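Every protein is a chain of amino acids, and every chain bends into a shape of its own. The fold becomes a row of whole numbers, each drawn from a learned catalogue of backbone shapes. The protein below has been through that process, and both of its lines are reproduced in full.
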Amino acid sequence: MDQGVEPAAPGKSAVRPHRLPPEAGILLVLLALALAFELLGWLLVGQSFLFNGQRLVVMILQVSVIGIIAIGVTQVIITGGIDLSSGSVVALTAMVAASFAQSSDALRAVYPTLTDLPVVVPVLAGLAVGAVAGLVNGSLIAATEIPPFIATLGVMVTARGFAKWYTRGQPVSMLTDAYAALGSGVVPVVIFLATALIFHVALRYTRYGKFTYAIGANREAARISGIRVGSHLVVVYTIAGVLSGLAGVLTSARAISGQAGMGLMYELDAIAAAVIGGASLSGGVGRISGTVIGTLILGVVTSGFTFLRIDAYYQEIVKGAIIVAAVIADQYRRRRRLTAT
């Protein structure tokens, strides 16, 4: 019997203590950070942090791309893996997608005979590149059983190299208005929230989600139970690659250009968002809803430091501290679960 629960009286069922959802603690951290920046704003700047609609909109727009990547990374982490290639995949997909989104006014079009194409063409090209990168990641891990860290590190370096080679380091500019519209207004936010909803449902209510959690919890037990672990890992990493490709499309659309330096360090931000949101680096634990909150926490920290006019390098120091704290908390929770069992 659980400690702290008294035996039920004859004829009555035991009343189980109500447990808060795992995201409740993370949400409290988000609210505490927002209130702290609000207080510091009035004390140091003389302005409100929370009650500024334009600032909040910019913050959400900035974190949308990271959030989309983090949704894919979360699924990889749940399987017990890691994906270090997503930032480089963003750069490569941005370059490829932008090259098919150039207008006929471009002075140096990558493909002079393929300008003013329907917007669906560059979008599909970017998603396809992301899918190939994810497929390579998953296939390397499933076929060779090398650590995901090594496989995705190799793809990270290779994808960044391809992004630089694609146009010999030259940016791709003069994109069509239809393509640029994908990165303007609230479109990235809508895409981020829709993506989060789709994979929240997929992980929680479908066989895909059950297999993903089972592999992360105990890979050998999952294999014995009949799950084709290798094939499923390929699917998970391919999905993560597609989402990185989508992020690359939105990044180039928002900048109205494709550049080989895009997506730098995005992979670490995405991993941080997932871990802050409760995903366990040991595998088997994580939720998309938590990742969304973790993404917002990173956005609040970045926006808050900018709002307080604190130098950018302090942001990186604090972000690193937050990541370490989140991993320590994850290890503490893991030890408690093992002790309880």
The chain has a mean pLDDT of 89.
